[in-house]
Amino acid sequence: MSEQEQQNQQQIADVTDKMEQVILDAEGKPLSKKALKKLEKEREKEQKKQERLAREAAERAAREAAEVDYATDNYGNAKLNMSQQQTNTKWTEIKELSAAMADQTVHIQARVQTSRPTGNKMCFLVLREGTATAQGLLVVNEDTISKQMVKFANSIPSESIVSITAIVVIPAEPIKSCTVGDIELHITKLFVISKVVTGLPFSIEDASYSKLDYEKDPTLNKVLLDTRLDNRVIDLRTIANNAIFKIQAAVGQLFREYLTEQKFTEIHTPKLISTASEGGSNVFQVTYFKRQAYLAQSPQLYKQACIAADFGRVYEIAPVFRAENANTYRHLTEYVGLDLECAFREHYHEIMYMIGDMFVYIFKNLEERWAHELEIVRKQYPSEPIKFDEKPLRLEFKDAIALLRKHGVEIGDLDDLSTPQERELGKLVKKEYGTDFYMLDKFPLGIRPFYTMPDPENPEYSNSYDFFLRGEEIMSGAQRIHDPVLLTERIKALEIDPSSLTDYIKGFEYGCPPHAGGGVGLERVVMFYLGIGNIRHTSLFPRDPKRVDP
Amino acid sequence: MSEQEQQNQQQIADVTDKMEQVILDAEGKPLSKKALKKLEKEREKEQKKQERLAREAAERAAREAAEVDYATDNYGNAKLNMSQQQTNTKWTEIKELSAAMADQTVHIQARVQTSRPTGNKMCFLVLREGTATAQGLLVVNEDTISKQMVKFANSIPSESIVSITAIVVIPAEPIKSCTVGDIELHITKLFVISKVVTGLPFSIEDASYSKLDYEKDPTLNKVLLDTRLDNRVIDLRTIANNAIFKIQAAVGQLFREYLTEQKFTEIHTPKLISTASEGGSNVFQVTYFKRQAYLAQSPQLYKQACIAADFGRVYEIAPVFRAENANTYRHLTEYVGLDLECAFREHYHEIMYMIGDMFVYIFKNLEERWAHELEIVRKQYPSEPIKFDEKPLRLEFKDAIALLRKHGVEIGDLDDLSTPQERELGKLVKKEYGTDFYMLDKFPLGIRPFYTMPDPENPEYSNSYDFFLRGEEIMSGAQRIHDPVLLTERIKALEIDPSSLTDYIKGFEYGCPPHAGGGVGLERVVMFYLGIGNIRHTSLFPRDPKRVDP
Q1: Of B288, B289, B456, the CB nearest to A83
Q2: Per-residue pLDDT tens for A417-459?
Q3: Residue B86 is nearest to which of A289, A349, A509, comparing CB atoms?
Q4: How many domains does chain A have?
Q5: Could you confirm whether B378 is annotated as catalytic?
Q6: Best exposed site among A143, A443, B89, B322 by fewest CB in 10 Å?
Q7: Could you tell me if residue B529 is inside a domain?
Q8: Given this model, what pLDDT does residue B4 score?
Q9: Do both A115 and A35 map to the same domain?
Q10: Residues of B with CB below 8 A from A291's CB?
Q11: CA-to-CA distance for B290 and B278, rounded, in angstroms?
């Protein structure tokens, strides 16, 4: 049904409604015969009018059909790209566009985020590519853009991909709704290269509102987290999500940049392991041919083996699997571990401070080199940039306990910090020292893994540390026990079956230098750095006890 | 028992043996009384001599014990390092040592690969750190190095780790057996910081011989591959293995360097997946809480999802799991996948040639920036550097078939190449084009996965390619089908259950740009690049159907 036909039908329906209202009158009683007759006449008149309008519309359609479309070469659905040809076209990305390119003709491939008609002679398109959007415009003219072409532009389903040729024009007013707002694209050619053929579960606009947008206008559509994750391919297209994963990649890149400079070697340790070591619980079981195997819950034992094998300084970026039935905002069953392990000469503080410097390197470079992406993310997820010192603050565990107690928190000397206590501590540290990032050193031995080196001065404590960002733990590490006798003693003291750790202990019997290290959860660092409230937003396809799809 | 006591006892035993021989004579008959008496006297004389020697030895030992050891501060077993202290010592690595440092005092921590006494006043140590070895020397002097200290040095078990202070000295002759041969370390302090307390399954020397060494001396000990892998922590300490894994890390680094320059984003896709997609066989099953899940056998579907989600250009370095019961020199059940996927504007050759350039970048930089490590590896595993062109050779599949047939290989037009045929082709290409590296383009459609884009000119072929190095496949890739209708058609044609691919197909219904990509096995690239005959040598802790340990 054409738009015109729809309008006509609606008008008839409106009149009929009106008549029925009149017939029943305000009290719901039938009207007089005279009044009825008058109404009947009015109805006939309206009917004739509608018939005339329909006739006129049909005539117009016929005229339009007969009208020669002088723009057929300039638009349409492109043939499926099977690599039929290679031209020498120079393609431009939307984020490269600027006022300096005024009057240039450019070739672009991008999504149509929305199309908005203005009358039947004009059409606005919001074009999107990665984290950039720009406004496209088609206006009927006498030789290259026909009414049919504008109609075609209007009919393109949202999220379809188009290939356009356009002239870069400086608009009278900057276009605030687009990230590249100082130019406008006057489209001269428009081909759909991938058409959306099914209804979108939600629109990219709806998925892109910030808290502030909802405060200003509470009637805006909301897209629930589960709906987003069920349709992650669509959800990931928002410019904020595109930027989040550029920042996630940046954290990995900066982690490697720093460690490569420090002469670390990247390693790849096995994820399929024969025994459920490292404590034993929380491991996924795998059917491995005719036996059982397990998924590594950290590269801990293997990265230490690399130290015993003289690799000196190693790091790994790889998936880590935790069969923990924890449904919280900060737990995943599969996440990306940034792990490092490092032989040292004298003191584990050599490594702890190096890790501190590494984070400072990451934070500084993110703000400088990924400023564009951070700006995009903060538009949808507003947060203050983190505060940190060039030389990060080191706090001892016992001083942290004292600080908490001073502010009324009840906690034992050797108790582990709960998540709320960690957050409280974060607030107190921020207040006292003005930093969102600090290192907590010398944890009680009792709350750390069996392979943690005790403190030589006070055996109730240990040579171990956590790093905190905005009051949440982002890295845990320690000096490890490199002596097989002390290690066996600790394993026995903690009532772990030493038989599952035979190979591990043997590695130290063959000689091993003192070493320390730590592990970071990539998604956690990104989440806390960006101040985003749920780890599922910083995992590409998150996995939790209830979700293993898509 | 002291060495002196041992010598004495041996001499007594020797004389007794001699006498018994004499008593029985050559014919085995007893001697005359006179002869016996003479012998008895000789025996008594010898006995007295031995008693005297023993007395003298005891006296010497007593003297030695009474002798003040003036070097006690300069050697010994160091206390377990629990990070008791931090000094400002400047530590030097063995590979940094050079003749330019002559007469300097240096501090080093390293393995004692071997210790060799020369008399009781001198001891040579081979010190090893990563890929570097140097000779250490202790000579008794009158004030800092005592006999006891030299004795201690001789007693250090191989592979223990020591902390030394030494003076850099230029030896009369270069030390050929060490990688740093133009200097010698005259040790002044020697402390064991990690002592080997258990017998080594094999020595590092035995694990370090090359084929050439065995040809020269077939009596040299051999260490079997399984023995190496069962004791990988020791095996990895050979300088060749240390270098192999530096090269493995380098390949990853160069892969990322190139792709980062090309604006790729690193992604991390899930390894736990809900359905055994991509064909279905060869996947490991995982118990996932109360249901079953599977280990991803490639990031294929997820990296394509990232393209449909507008990431444009993505790569991933992550473990790949294959439950294939293949026990060959080139299969692993877990390996490191270097995967990439890339939207393109016009033709998949944009991507194929880019991948070709990427490999050239990797090969060139390896030879330049990792020359030291390559030299070390090639000493144990001799191989010629690969030959390749700046712009890699592209060969069409049908031309490869023609080339093989021309040389007597029987093969059908659309048959897949067997491994021997691939190797034969490699030889022919090397002969004809002088390159060890080339791209084979336009494979038959029938032997490629369902998501491969058909060739627009000839539907029996496809827009797909493999990359070959020294006649072995190192990368497989293609243009993918981005159209949901054609994709569904292909899935049905190949009789795959489309229900397992619902989410995947849906990604394309929401619009997706044309794209191409490929996947590399990291261990394979390193193996073929270095010309090493078994993939287990280039995997840190290899996994195959029979091995999931250590």
Answers
A1: B456
A2: 999 999 999 999 999 999 999 999 999 999 999 999 999 999 9
A3: A349
A4: 4
A5: no
A6: A143
A7: yes
A8: 52
A9: no
A10: 548
A11: 24
